[in-house]
């Protein structure tokens, strides 16, 4: 039987390219700082020595998270307004003109606005 040994290391290791953590970190713009933490840890083998690199990486990730949250809030608010306008237009045909109808407005809403319909 000519099968390859179970620990065949001749195959190129492509795991680094498919690492989801690496992909996530590179999307944040903090990858270089992450690598600096890794290099410091590899060199010193003591997390206490690498605190400045860790703090810089942490700050970068926090800034990314804050910016991402703000982006999602703006996006969600725009989507909520569009959904509300669409739903209100679709309700027009069901409203009895003889009944009093509460006017729903997002003009006075402070984000995040919740669609009342």
Automatic annotation (TrEMBL):
Residue ranges, annotated region (Disordered): 1-22
Domain of life assignment: Eukaryota
Coiled-coil annotated spans: none
Segments of skewed composition (Basic and acidic residues): 1-13
GO CC annotation, single: mitochondrial intermembrane space
One record GO biological process: mitochondrial respiratory chain complex IV assembly
Name of the protein in its database record: CHCH domain-containing protein
PANTHER family assigned: CYTOCHROME C OXIDASE ASSEMBLY FACTOR 4 HOMOLOG, MITOCHONDRIAL
UniProt-listed InterPro entries: Coa4-like
């Amino acid at each position: 039987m000519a099968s390859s040994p179970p620990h065949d290391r001749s195959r190129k290791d492509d795991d680094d390219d498919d690492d989801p953590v690496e992909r996530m970190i590179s999307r944040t713009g903090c990858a270089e700082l992450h690598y600096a933490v890794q290099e410091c840890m590899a060199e010193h083998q003591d997390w206490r020595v690498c605190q400045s690199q860790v703090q810089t990486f942490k700050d970068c990730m926090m800034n990314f998270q804050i910016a991402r949250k703000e982006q999602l809030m703006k996006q969600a608010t725009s989507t909520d307004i569009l959904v509300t306008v669409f739903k209100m237009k679709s309700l027009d045909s069901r409203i009895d003109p003889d009944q009093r109808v509460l006017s729903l407005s997002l003009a006075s809403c402070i984000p995040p606005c919740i669609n009342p319909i």
